């Protein structure tokens, strides 16, 4: 009788950052330090995970920043040279810049780097500068209830009116984007959704409205595939006001 080898769940974290951004309260030095803390928290709580860091900023990484970050992750991508990123970076509204740049770069990564995700069971999307905390349990995601599903930290009522978001008044909600994950079998679904999310945000802006990633995730991710996990095990400080949050 042959030997049966059991393997653990294989995971990848896609971490978004904007080290040299002028938006928010934090300096590039603080952003770099906090992002290194993000990476360290993943290594602590998911030691076998691949970490792909996507810097999504119109201002590219400096050589010293690149050297420090690339030594700590599986792969580092500096997307400052993308034509679309440079075009978005000229928009005067920093909220628009942040949301549209992140969606564009993540969508680009999912299209161009699919080979890096081959053999992975679960993919985590995490915002840099936040950290996994003691409530995060990587083993929980190997539960059968998570297989074939997306896991978010919560579904919340919009802070904007339906007139602003263009959503139906009975369905004006958002899903938190600081940390969520999806079964790798859903990669084509997520990639397609991000394409529609980008189109929808441009449509709302052209109509004089506004919408962000959180609202778009709720609008375009398949409801039947969503599992809510509270708490999800994430802590950190919000960029606009440095308020400490815990999800």
Number of strands: 12
Order of helices and strands: EHEHEHHEEEEHEEHHEEE
Indicate how many domains the architecture comprises. Answer: 1
Give the full name of the CATH homologous superfamily: Spore Coat Polysaccharide Biosynthesis Protein SpsA, Chain A
CATH architecture: Alpha-Beta Complex
**What structural category arises from helix and sheet content?**
alpha/beta
Average pLDDT score: 94
- Name the shape in a single word: globular
> Could you please say which CATH topology applies here?
Spore Coat Polysaccharide Biosynthesis Protein SpsA, Chain A
Topology:
Elements: E1 11-17, H1 28-45, E2 50-55, H2 63-70, E3 75-78, H3 83-88, H4 94-112, E4 122-127, E5 131-132, E6 150-152, E7 155-157, H5 162-165, E8 173-175, E9 179-183, H6 187-206, H7 213-220, E10 226-228, E11 234-237, E12 244-246
Parallel strand pairs: 1-2, 1-4, 2-3, 6-10
Antiparallel strand pairs: 4-9, 5-11, 6-9, 7-8, 11-12
Helix pairs in contact: 4-6, 6-7
Q: What tags apply to this protein structure?
A:
247 residues, alpha/beta, Spore Coat Polysaccharide Biosynthesis Protein SpsA, Chain A, three-stranded antiparallel β-sheet, 7 helices, 12 strands, 34% helix, globular, disordered N terminus
């Amino acid at each position: 009788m042959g030997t049966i080898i059991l393997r653990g769940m294989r995971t990848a974290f896609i971490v978004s950052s904007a080290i040299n951004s002028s938006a928010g309260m934090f300096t590039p030095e603080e952003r770099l330090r906090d992002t290194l803390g993000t990476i360290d928290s993943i290594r602590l709580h998911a030691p076998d995970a691949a970490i792909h860091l996507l810097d999504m900023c119109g201002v590219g990484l400096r050589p010293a920043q690149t050297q420090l970050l690339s030594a700590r992750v599986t792969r580092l991508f500096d997307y400052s040279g993308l034509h679309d990123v440079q075009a978005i970076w000229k928009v005067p509204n920093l909220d628009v810049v942040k949301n549209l740049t992140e969606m564009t770069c993540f969508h680009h990564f999912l299209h161009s780097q699919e080979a890096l995700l081959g053999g992975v069971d679960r993919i985590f999307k995490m915002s840099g500068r936040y950290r996994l905390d003691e409530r995060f349990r990587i083993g929980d995601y190997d539960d059968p209830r998570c297989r074939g599903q997306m896991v978010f930290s919560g579904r919340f009522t919009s802070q904007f009116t339906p007139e602003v978001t263009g959503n139906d008044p009975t369905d004006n909600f958002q899903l938190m984007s600081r940390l969520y994950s999806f079964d790798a079998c859903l990669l084509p679904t997520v990639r397609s959704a991000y394409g529609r999310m980008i189109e929808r945000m441009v449509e709302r802006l052209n109509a004089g409205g506004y919408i962000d990633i959180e609202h778009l995730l709720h609008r375009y991710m398949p409801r039947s595939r969503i599992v809510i996990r509270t708490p999800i095990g994430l802590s950190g400080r919000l960029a606009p006001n440095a308020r400490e949050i815990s999800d």
